[in-house]
Amino acid sequence: MTEYKDNYIAINKANWDERAPEHSRSTGYDYQRLVREPSYVSEVVQFDIPLMGDISGLEIVHLQCHIATDTLSLVRRGAKRVTGLDFSPAAIKEAKDLAVKAVGGDKLNFVEASIYDALDVLPPASFGMVFTGIGALCWIPSIKRWAETVAALLKPGGRLFIRECHPALWAIDETVTDSLITGIPYFERDEPHVYDESGTYVETDHVFENTKTVEWNHGIGEIVQSLIDAGMSITGLVEHKSIPWNALRGQMEKIEPFGEFALKEGRDNLPLSYTLQAKKNA
Hints:
Residues 63-158 form the Methyltransferase domain. This is Methyltransferase domain-containing protein. It comes from Zasmidium cellare ATCC 36951. InterPro entries: Methyltransf_25, SAM-dependent_MTases_sf. The protein is of the alpha/beta class. The protein has a domain at 2-165 and 216-241 and 274-280: Rossmann fold (3-Layer(aba) Sandwich), CATH 3.40.50.150. Helices cover 32% and strands 24% of the residues. It has ten helices and eleven strands. Strands 3-2-1-4-5-11-8 form a seven-stranded mixed sheet, with helices on both faces. It has a two-stranded antiparallel sheet with strand order 6-7. A two-stranded antiparallel ribbon has the order 9-10.
């Protein structure tokens, strides 16, 4: 496992470089609709709106922005300017192409860097909000370092907004299709979990060559405490019964609105995602 931990960035980058162009072409993302419809906001951000509230005039940094569908959506929700950061050059290319093609893209800026190198390419204490979308934290080994990066990027009084897959769901063995069985550690461990999967989470005919990914789970308590230790105050924590993709094949169904998926049975038995908000102490 040490070989995977030591090389996790290169392994994951190869995987995401191959995924990015397929995701921008897929109907599983709102990429093409964002180009066609000047006022459209991605379904992920539509879900976030009630808890996120007004972001008018904010300078926002979107960490692990991928192909920028949510990044652009934040601009359309009123952000003054949004900077997207991602470690995948292929994802940054798709993001920049979206900015050129879509109304509102002139308020976007993109930088290529890993999450832990954010302060090497972005000015500290410069943002009114750090936004992190769903499916991001599993790619980083240390939630403590992530929280320290978030706090360092924010102005005093600035806020964090994150909606993420629930670590209780990450702990479920997705190869079991008829019951909920834990097979992955809930808590952060030094050694990662290595997956080898032939596809991606959207429909595509592409045959992938880079199929391995290296991932970590982080418990809710670990995430919350890391933010507190980094000088943040928790202002909200809401658990949800849905998630934007079919995470457990055979056990989920699509629901409306926002194109979310929920358990077919026992929806009160397992949280699938959560929204966490925090504020940087003055």
